[in-house]
Amino acid sequence: MSLAAGASVRFDDVYKSFDDTVVLAGVSLDVEPGEIFALLGPSGSGKTTMLRLLAGFEQLDRGRLLIADEAVEHLPPARRGVGMLFQSYALFPHLSVAENVAFGLKVRGGGKGDVPARVAEMLELVRLGGFEARRIAELSGGQQQRVALARALAPRPRVLLLDEPLSNLDPALREETRIDLRHTVKQTGITTVLVTHEQEEAFELGERIGLLNDGRLEQVAAPAELYQDPASRFVATFVGRCSVLPGVVEARGAGGALEVRIGSQRAPQVWSCQGGGGIEAGDRVDVCVRPEALEIEALELAPGAKTGLRGEIEVERYTGSSSFYTVRLTAPSDGFGAAADSVSVEVAMPGAAAGLSGACVVRPAAQEPPPRVFPAGSTGAGS
Amino acid sequence: MPWLVLAFLVWLVGYPLLVVAAEAFGIGGPDADGPTTEAFRSFFTRADEWNAMWRTLWISVLSTLAAAAVGVPLGFLFERNEIPGRRLLGALVALPVALPPLVGVIAFLFLYGESGLAARGLQTVGLDVSWRLTGAWAILLVHAYSMYVYFYLFTRAGLSGQDGAAIEAAQSLGASRSQILFRVTLPRLRPAMAGATLLTFMTSLGSFSAPYIFGGGFRVMTTQIVASKLNGELRMAYVETTMLALLAFGSLLLLRRIDPGLDLASGARGTPPARRRLQTQRARVAAATGGWVLAGVLLLPHATLILMSLVPPNTWTVEAFPPVLGLVNYGDLLSSAERLRPALNSLWMAAAATLAAIVVGVAAARLSLRRGGLPGRALEAMMTLPWAIPGTVFALALAAAMSVNAPWVGRFVLVGTLWILPLAYLVRSLPLTGRSIFAGMRQLDPRLEEAAASLGAGALRTVVQIVLPLLRPAVIAGAGLAFITMLGDFVTSIVLYTYDTRPISIEIQSSLRIQETGIAAAYGVLLMVLSAAAFIAWDDRSGGRL
Fold first, then answer.
1. How distant is the Cα of B433 from the closest Cα of chain A, in angstroms?
2. Domain limits at A355?
3. Of A26, B2, B271, B386, which has the fewest Cβ atoms less than 10 A away?
């Protein structure tokens, strides 16, 4: 198996607008050689534009783009050494499977003997050996995706770009294809940048993830760090499930932990939270807490329970490995500020369905990482 | 690149129109004495000019009504009723759409002319009738005959796109059959009717063959223009050309206002209502007989044309039916290089124009749709413009613009050379290939081109290896229509031909003039066969999109 050489990729202070809409506002990013990097973000956050800039289908307004330390922003797509797997696959319907895979090789003037050998090698790589003569219309969605991958890899590009690579597949096929795709790409050792709006896809495929919001990178981190140590309230709420509670910082304790008062003046709860350096005692904050970082106890089982926020269980969802409870907090009149009526939290209880209902108390679970706090009303890292 | 293609199109399509309008005001050209409105004042004061303008209008209105009166009921008959032989009959009835107007006109002449087959037949059975197929009514008859197909095809398409559930809903609400027709079916046919009206009216406005052959002293604008040019009144011809172009533009804008667009049509989902089966055997036989008789009547002129082509010269005098039939005329036509030349001329000029129209069409469509913006819209407008302007106007405009040697203002002497007719054909082919190629390009996923680019392909390779193969059905459909139209072109040819480039249509006209009716008919049949062959071959390869 001849492997494609991995090359580094650098976005250096890249700006891009369409008409009056700013799509990328000074994005800088380094992707390591051979790394699988996922760009994650909501629709319109600029992730596809980053991919298209890298491929050369769009021209940047300002900044630099480097592949293997070579500036490529002025090169046409054909000369960037970038292979792309399109969301729609963009397979040439009038060509056979082999002709599709051979297209990039022939364009680059591959030797007559080399082309069939490389085509066969690529089709083997994606487990489609023997499909050479098939028409594209005769293939299933998953097979089309693999042909598109073989076609993109055949000319040995320096960087592989994947645009929502699994979005056209039905959910049952996605899981299997995702594992396949990661295996194939790792086997070639090629630097890969993929774009997705699905967190699960980014987490399973990406070794590192860049989370984009409104044309800015909110955070670049490995999946676990992104989940456990979000850099902003946006990251915390976009990645995974998260409840947001209003609170006031009481004090900064030992080791940087923040003592945050949640709930009402009459029945305050003080939670130990993690937060950035800029937050001081007396600041109003948003407390972001994952469902598994909370635990719940029914009041009828523990009528004397004093610690925890009181609430009413509204919904129970059982997913097999856990039960999820949506709890509407019942605050006294001085609690939770203006949003008192709408404050609810989600709590995950592992194991079999617990079948809880009615009044309950909610508190941080002892074993989990503490809740994160961000300045009240903030959204992104830059705000 | 977009600006280069746009500049070429503006030079070819827009510039000649500007030149002819400028010269009508005495600006530019060999007889420049302006700016002056003298020729326009003369136009507005001369009764023959006003008459031609007025006649053009009312002939077009009546032609549209007559074509609708024939085409719409036929469309209903074949789309809503299950009659024996429906598919074949339905296709036969649509056949005149593929035939050049001039062929239809001379076929009419041979059948219904004063010494035509019909008159002779009636005289033989003792009916002493005589008539002259000339003037307004003759033009109207030919127009209705050749243009009902637009209404027929649009009606069928409109009906087949309607949702049968809407009719069932009306029935369940207690509507009668006439209420359903007038309140459900016909309102939903409005987009189709608007389309057919636009096409028929604009075709009629620019019609030349029928007024030229049958008009006699009854002149419409197209024949008036050619007459003025032949009489040497060039300035007046340019004024008439400008006025006809304005009339066409005005009509187009007005008619587009009645077009409700796709809103009504796109409301249709589901399947069209089932065709009504005739209950009794007698009704089925009557319907089938009626249908075949109708098809026979509609195809009779062309059958007559074939018959006339088999009549050797000077063998048919007073008999009701030709006493001798043979292939002498075809032998003459094929054995003499001089006689065969018009056919070869038509073939190469139509082929060259079509090929060029494909190249320009693909370039314009790709640039227009991929780049967008002002040049994109301008490119599409330039490709469409020749559709709205009568052929006579373009012929005169090109004759005016390309008869002066002034390269620095984009004018070259092309009139009288080999190049002027193919160039004129190219202008008239542009909307035909353009419409089809633009539609095809709109359906093409732009990611395919990006995929080719990311794999290292340059623009040329991407077009040749990816875009063109995928556009093939659209290109073939547009090119087929353009080729057939140009093969039988008469309206531009009569203004711009030279002896060396005379096409079939001009040879038909010359043969008629010197009473060589057999040869004229043989040329007509040749044109008919070539067009039909091209139509069938292209329809097959374009996946039925022609």
1. 22
2. 237-375
3. B271
Which residues numbered 350-379 in B keep a CB inside 8 Å of some CB on A? Answer: none
Higher per-residue pLDDT: A118 or B24: A118
Are the Cβ atoms of A84 and B454 closer than 8 angstroms? Answer: yes
Tokens encoding B303: 């059958």
Which residues fall within 8 angstroms of residue A366, CB to CB, at 6 or more apart?
none
Q: Determine which of A103, A119, A163, A164 to mutate to test the interface with B (most B C-beta atoms within 10 Å).
A: A103
Same domain, residue pair A165 and A289: no
Whether residue A246 has a cis bond before it, omega within 30° of 0? no
Q: Give the closest-approach CA distance of B316 to chain A in angstroms.
A: 57
Chain A residue nearest residue B445, CA to CA: A90
Asked whether residue A381 is assigned to any structural domain, the reply reads no
Show which of A179, A206, A234 is a domain's final residue.
Answer: A234
Q: What is the ipTM of this complex?
A: 0.75
What are the pLDDT digits (tens) for B365-402? 888 888 777 888 888 888 888 888 888 888 888 888 88
pLDDT digits (tens, 9 = 90+) for B447-484: 999 999 999 898 889 999 999 999 888 888 888 888 88
Residue of chain B nearest A79, judged by CA positions: B456
Which token pair is B165? 């559930």
Q: pLDDT class for B261, splitting at 50, 70, 90?
A: low
Residue A195 carries which DSSP code? Answer: E
Judge whether A47 lies within some domain. yes
Kindly indicate the confidence band of residue A1, based on its pLDDT and cuts at 50, 70 and 90: very low
Contact residues for A256 (Cβ-Cβ < 8 A; gap 6+)? A274
Assign A111 to helix, strand or coil.
Answer: coil
Mark whether A281 and A201 lie in a shared domain: no
d(CA B22, CA B237): 13
A97 and A16 in a single domain? The answer is yes
Q: What pLDDT score was predicted for residue A15?
A: 94
B466 CB neighbours in chain A (<8 A) are: 92
Fold assignment, B2-29+49-269+276-323+348-541? MetI-like fold (1.10.3720)
Domain boundary pick from A234, A269, A302:
A234
- The answer to whether A90 contacts B448, with C-beta atoms less than 8 Å apart, is yes
Across A198-213, average pLDDT: 91
Residues in A 67-126 with any Cβ partner in B closer than 8 A: 76-80, 82-84, 86-88, 90-94, 103-104, 107-108
Do A270 and A181 share a structural domain? Answer: no
For the record, the structure tokens of A304 come out as 């004397």
For every residue of B165-197, which 3-state class applies, written as one string? HHHHHHHHCCCCHHHHHHHHHHHHCHHHHHHHH
One domain for residues A307 and A218: no
Specify whether the CB–CB gap between B264 and B193 falls below 8 A: no
Which among B451, B461, B465 is the nearest to A86, CB-wise?
B451
Q: Is the peptide bond before B16 cis (omega within 30 degrees of 0)?
A: no
**Cα(B360)–Cα(B358) distance, integer angstroms:** 6
Between CA B533 and CA B540 the distance in angstroms is: 11
Q: Which residues of A touch B454 (CB under 8 A)?
A: 55-56, 77-78, 80, 82-84, 152
Residue A27: give its domain's CATH number.
3.40.50.300
Q: How many domains does chain A have?
A: 2
* Residue B420 or residue A113, greater confidence: B420
A19 Cα to chain B: minimum distance (Å): 12
* Average pLDDT, integer, range B406-435: 87
Chain B within 8 Å of A210 (Cβ-Cβ)?
Answer: no
In a domain, A100, yes or no: yes
Residue A111: the pLDDT is: 63
**A330-377 per-position pLDDT tens digit:** 765 445 544 445 678 888 888 766 677 788 888 888 777 788 888 887
Are A211 and A247 in the same domain?
A: no
Q: Which of A77, A92, A93 sits opposite B453 (nearest CB)?
A: A77
Q: Which helix (H) or strand (E) holds A299?
A: none
Q: For position B59, what pLDDT does the model report?
A: 93
Task: Judge whether A4 lies within some domain.
Answer: no
Per-residue pLDDT tens digits for A50-78? 999 999 888 999 999 999 999 999 988 88
> Within an 8 Å CB–CB cutoff, is residue A55 touching chain B?
yes
Q: Are residues A216 and A337 in the same domain?
A: no
Same-domain check for residues A50 and A199: yes
